Amino acid sequence: MPPSMYDYLIVGSGLFGATFAHEATKQGKKCLVIDKRPHLGGNIYCESIEGINVHKYGAHIFHTNNREIWDYVNGLVPFNRYTNSPLANYRGKIFNLPFNMNTFYQMWGITKPEQAKAKIEEQRAEAVAKMKAAGVTEARNLEEQGLYLVGKDIFETLIKEYTEKQWGRPCSELPAFIIKRLPVRLVFDNNYFNDAYQGIPVGGYNKLTEGLLEGVECKTNTDFFNSGYRDWRKYARQLVYTGPIDEYFGFCYGKLDWRTVQFKTRVMDIHNYQGNAVVNYTSHEHPYTRIIEHKHFEMFNQAVYDCPKTVISEEYSTEYKEGMEPFYPVNDERNNQLAERYRTLAEKETGVVFGGRLAEYRYYDMAPVIEKVINLWRSLS
Which domain holds residue 136? Predict the structure, then answer.
């Protein structure tokens, strides 16, 4: 390899690419990270507005049960105590999430776990009876699945219309497998995650990206497909690709489908808009799926009022169109089969590592992405 060449050209500076660059650099490898966006960090990038770290591509809450991964990220930047406890707003009434005894008290006025259990089982039995009357034994769509899992009240108040906004079609037309299970907690616990560790980097996610990419050469505003780097073997011994897998192969089998999210972000001239970082809007009354108030990820108690303004983002789930940011894979039969064909091509590609949400056509939380890269490096060494 000529001395001017890189060991790795890394396409994309999101968590997979940045973590790979970090691990490679620790092993003495020379890396170049390129990203077509004007900033580093992929979807965890934060924009500073009015002294508030705004999650530009939607709320990101780091959570894991893996102590090694928790220590790994905290070794780069300390994390705060943020605990994800979202709320649901259904036609002006507030419910705690996830479904727990607080939710059931708000919905039915009950205070005992056995009362909640009996109420849910009663409504589940009604759903089963309706399916039997229709001559079916298994849910044919998401609506039947939701009613079977948690009953009418929870499904219709907190799931049905919210899900229809997310997917842009009625629950009766969505496949049942989208919701395989709906956890119900018979305790008063609003902590959304079951993981032992969760939080937000102190100073925002850019601090995590900076820690991962310290000492790594990076170029922004550089599109792999519209630059000389497409002929990557001139520049590096190996390629790490984190972009859309179908695009890498020139869409030779056709394009994969995505769901995406659009954001309407605005500054509010008040200290505190909704009193919580995440509020889901679960009826069709509002076109957005949720509102994020970003200051609550990092400001607590008096700090909320020491910052005179706040920033909110309304989230709108929509079908992906050319030029939009792809967010979520569409896990239906067509796309799963198509993605598998592309993955088979990827396995045959020499000198290329495909990794991350876009390159694998799989949804990932943040901690598993970091864990995957660390394990990959262990296998390499």
Answer: 99-178
Same domain, 148 and 63: no
Give the tens place of pLDDT for each residue, 293-340: 999 999 999 999 999 999 999 999 998 888 888 998 987 889 999 999
Task: Reduce the secondary structure of the chain to three states and give it as a string.
Answer: CCCCCEEEEEECCCHHHHHHHHHHHHCCCCEEEECCCCCCCHHHCEEEECCEEEECCCCCCEEECCHHHHHHHHCCCCECCCCCCCEEEECCEEEECCCCHHHHHHHHCCCCHHHHHHHHHHHHHHHHHHHHHCCCCCCCCHHHHHHHHHCHHHHHHHHHHHHHHHHCCCHHHCCHHHCCCCCCCCCCCCCCCCCCEEECECCCHHHHHHHHCCCCEEECCCCHHHCHHHCHHHCEEEEEECCCHHHHCCCCCCCCCEEEEEEEEEEECCCCCCCCCEEEECCCCCCCCEEEEHHHHCCCCHHHHHCCCEEEEEEEEEECCCCCCCCEECCCHHHHHHHHHHHHHHHHCCCEEECCHHHHCCCCCHHHHHHHHHHHHHHHC
**Catalytically annotated residues:** 181, 185, 259, 290, 315, 363, 365
In a domain, 297, yes or no: no
How far out from the chain centre does Cα 59 lie?
8
Co-location of 110 and 204 in the same domain: no
Residues 45 and 73 in one domain: yes
Name the average pLDDT for the chain: 95
Q: What are the tens digits of pLDDT across the range 242-252?
A: 999 999 999 99
Tens digits of per-residue pLDDT, 199-245? 999 999 999 999 999 999 999 999 999 999 999 999 999 999 999 99
- Which CATH number characterizes residue 220's domain? 3.40.50.720
Q: How many distinct structural domains can be found in the chain? A: 2
Q: Report the predicted TM-score, pTM, of the whole model to 2 decimal places.
A: 0.93
Domain end among 146, 178, 210:
178
Task: Report how far Cα 368 is from the mean position of its chain's Cα atoms.
Answer: 12
pLDDT at position 179 is: 86
Q: Are residues 21 and 134 in the same domain?
A: no
Q: Is 274 within the bounds of a domain?
A: no
